[in-house]
Write a structure and sequence with these properties.
Length: 434
């Protein structure tokens, strides 16, 4: 039987897109406490099922597919620009295709405005109406209001009119930044993208005996299985080493490993890989917030996904991408790298930040080990010493030395120089992924 929390999520999922909900209405409809309703609504928001807007409330929105994540809903735009909805609240769940800045005469402007657009414009009441009639939502900059006629038209067409105190340039930059952030998120492969779903997962229950393990092993050729109870909640993992020497009538609960390490569907594949390598795990159960089994991920699938990601062109650039792209290999007889300190790499004092130094050391260590070993690495420990600050626009020279390179581990000493003077030193230890 589903828990109250799960019933609320199912209820929210069943609601029509655009429908407004509240903690009080959910609590009343499903006879649950307001605290339970609040927590379920927050989870629904994390899942992309609803969006909460100040002065408007929480509305059911359409969950976006991963490939369309770079598109924003009007509800998200309201939150991005800290806007106020003047009309057309019923259309906040809709997705915008692109935004158009109305900085020209009306006739010229309307050549670019289409249905599904967001027209960004100042206090031009006539433009607001014409934009709505063309099927576009309207974002008014400068904190201005609009006419009652335009508000009524927005309500009739279910197209939002939003007002923000920011100017047009700032608003465009904020929306662009939000889309850019979404593109970066799109590139991050999650467990949800690679998991073997529950219906395709081989598992055992707490009622089974070791005999069931032997049946599954013969049928599938696999040796590791999650163990769940009658409510589908994860209770343990069982592998070949656990059943070794046990009779076929032994209850599986007696031999399984209880309280196994798990991940959820929103965990990144990189984080899952780190756990699997660090703990020496071949199979990880994927669970929801109620610890119900959603499926499993294998170490092989995780590493394949990471290799695929590395071969894909990047659209959104993270700070780490910016830093690593500045590193140049200038090795001749000895290993040597060079990096220019750009404005993005500095702290509030205009000197290179601690986090950037850590990224430089990690990336140089990765590149050096790749010269001798195929695969990737998981950093175990970095000991870092700042000796002198490095100013913006400086050129740093990075000299790594491999202290030890085994089959599974590597130790690297890294020295950082500026104008011939040592400015930093680090010792990095890492596990190697085959």
């Amino acid at each position: 039987m589903a828990t109250k929390h799960e019933q609320i999520i199912e209820y929210i999922t069943s609601l029509a897109v655009g429908e407004k909900i509240s903690v009080r209405s959910i609590a009343k409809a499903l006879t649950v406490s307001e605290g339970t309703a609040y927590r379920a609504i927050k989870e629904a928001e994390n899942k992309g099922l609803v969006s909460t807007i100040e002065r408007v409330g929480t509305i059911r929105i359409e969950k976006k597919k991963k490939e369309n994540i770079e598109k924003l809903t009007y509800a998200e735009v309201v939150n991005i620009v800290d806007g106020q909805v003047l009309g057309g609240r019923e259309g906040l769940h809709k997705t915008l295709n692109r935004f158009v800045i109305g900085a020209m005469k009306l006739d010229a402007m309307m050549r670019y405005v289409e249905a599904g657009n967001l027209l960004i414009v100042g206090n031009r009441d006539q433009v607001h109406k014409v934009g709505l009639e063309a099927g576009a939502a309207v974002l008014i900059t400068g904190g201005f209001d609009t006419s009652e006629e335009a508000k009524a038209l927005a309500d009739e067409l279910a197209l939002p009119i939003i007002s923000t105190s920011y100017d047009t340039f700032t608003v465009a930059a904020m929306i662009n930044r939000a889309i850019y952030d979404q593109l970066i998120k799109k590139e991050i492969v999650l467990v949800d993208d690679v998991l073997i779903p529950f219906q395709d997962t081989y598992y055992m229950t707490t009622q089974n005996t070791v005999d069931k393990w032997h049946d599954l092993n013969e049928k599938t050729g696999h040796s590791r299985y999650p163990v769940i109870d009658q409510n589908l909640k994860i209770k343990g993992m069982v592998a070949a080493k656990d059943v070794l020497g046990a009779t076929k009538q032994t209850p599986i609960e007696k031999v399984m490993t209880g309280n196994p390490i798990t991940v959820n569907e929103r965990t990144s594949v990189a984080a899952a890989a780190h756990v699997m390598v660090w703990e020496g795990i071949e199979l990880l159960p994927v669970i929801d917030s109620q610890r119900k089994l959603l499926g499993v991920i294998s170490r092989q699938d995780v590493l394949k996904a990471l290799q695929m990601v590395q071969r894909q062109p990047h659209i959104g650039e993270t700070i780490e991408d910016i830093v690593t792209s500045r590193i140049r290999d200038i090795s001749t007889e000895e290993l040597l790298f060079e990096c220019e300190v750009t404005p993005q790499m500095t702290n509030q004092l205009g000197t290179i930040s601690y986090g950037v130094i850590t990224t430089l050391v990690t990336e140089v260590g990765r590149r050096v080990l790749r010269k001798f070993k195929k695969g990737d690495l998981v950093v175990e420990n970095i000991t870092l010493y700042f000796i002198k600050p490095v100013q913006i626009d400086s050129i740093m020279t990075i000299q790594p030395k491999i202290l030890e390179s085994g089959r599974r581990n590597g130790k690297i000493d890294v020295e950082l120089y500026h104008n011939g003077d040592i400015v930093g030193k680090a010792l990095m230890m890492a596990q190697l992924i085959d």
